[in-house]
Each structure stands twice: as structure tokens, then as C-alpha cells.
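Notes to self, peptidylprolyl isomerase:
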Amino acid sequence: QDLTGDGGVRKEQLCPGTGQPVPPSASVAVKYSGYLGNWTKLFCSNGNSKYPRLMKLGKDITLLGLEIGLLSMTKGEAAVFILKPEYAYGQRGCPPSIPPNTTVLFRVELLDFIDSEECDAFFELTYEQQDRLPLEKVLKVAATEREFGNYFFYKQRFKVAKDRYKRALSILGRSSSSKAEQSQINASKLLLFLNLSLTYLKLERPDQALKYGELALEMDQGNAKALFRCGQACLYMREYSKSRDFLARAQCLQPFNRDINNELKKLARYYKEHMEMEKEMCCQMFNPLNS
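result:
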């Protein structure tokens, strides 16, 4: 398939993907390998990277032919792109790896992408301009930031995920003009509080995990996930009574939830070990008196 009409970028699909093609404003996660003309020499690759970083089209990816190729791809697709020099490294090449006027080949797998057009435009505005935007746009930007956070969370980059979740929260700090608007803002905040609670658990910061879990409960007292997170945080801090209270309330709401029930079993085991340790310490303290 000729993507340019002049043979400048040719595509050979190796594996089809699903969904919509990559939009021009997207950030993409790809696995790639670049070769000289006839597959004889590998000159660049991120194939050994377990979690490829998100790269912004037009900013992190500046090779014209590769950008044209990516815009033709869908999530999960793998393809080979053959780039003529004018769509790759041009007349000069890129010494010493790439000679002048060289056709290059890229094998690319599109793992994921996030369309960040709304976010890019939003953060170029002043605070006053951001405040004047319709709530619908603000909520969309916050949702995209949360999507970025989720991406980094699942790649186990918890600090980056935490920062993206907090960035989304900062967007939602505006005052609402109606109860309906506030309800929409709170629904978006609730998801972020829950995400931050879990992320702080992964970062081994149970105090912060508890803080965001309790903020979620302020918005929804019957949220089983928030109760569960608070119970986990308290157990981590060895606050066994508080942990039992949160987990028991969560279990009342979801009696067949395996995670909640397993956490209660863990609590019982930890509490038993704690009491045995306390008993042993008391015995050691009083043994000299008895003797």
C-alpha cells in the first residue's frame, strides 16, 4: 500500500488492528525496529523495552514517513513501512549510522494510543480562559488525563500515574453554577480519588491511600471500593481495628467479593500474629520477676 501517492511511504500490514486510526494529535506507545534498505543493518530499536514510553506525534516522532505510517494504523496493528530518503533522513542521512540518500525500513507494532488534542489545547490557555470553558470540555480533559494516568499505572510507573491523576484533579477545582454541574464534577473526582488511593498503596504510602479513600467516602459513603482501599491502608499501617471496620462495611455491601474476603482473612492472620507477639513480649518482661 502506497500511503503518499509517489511511493515515498509503502506499507505492508503484518497483523490487523482494531478501532479507529491514530489521530494526528495522539500520543502513541509503539514497539519499533529501524533497518537500512534491505534488512541488513539494524540502526534503532526499542524492542527490549518492556514498557515503551508514550511518544507525541510531531514532537517525539519527527520522521515524516514514520508519522504518515502511524496515522494509518489502528490499535494492535503491526506493519512494515518502507521509507524513501525524502520521507526519512534525506540527502544528508544521519552519519555514521545512515548513509546519504538511504531508503530505510521500520517494523512497527502499535500497542496503544491516547488522543490528547483536548488536553494540549486546554493547557495552552490561561487560568481565566480555562475557567470560562464549558464544563463538558473540562470534564473531557480530566478524563483524558485520567486515561494517561491509567496507562502509566498499568505499566507500573506509579509516580507518573499519580502525577497525572493529580493533574486531572487540579482541573476539576472550579466552582460549579448548579447542583447538576457539581454532581458531574464529583463523579469525575470520585474516580480520581479511588485511583489515587490505589496508586498510593502501590507506592507504599498508606497514609495518603487512606486520605484519598476517605475523600472518596465523603462523596459516596456506600462505595465498597473506597471502603476496601481504606481497609487495606489501615491494615498496612497495622491499625487493625480501623481496618476491620472498613473491610466489614465493604463486605456488607459486597458479601461475595473475593478481594474483600481475602483481605479480611489476611487481617485475621496478621492480628493473630500480632497478639501472639504481644503475648510473647509480656512473657519475656515478666519472666525475670517470676524467676
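- The first helix runs from residue 64 to 70.
- The CA atoms of residues 22 and 70 lie 7 Å apart.
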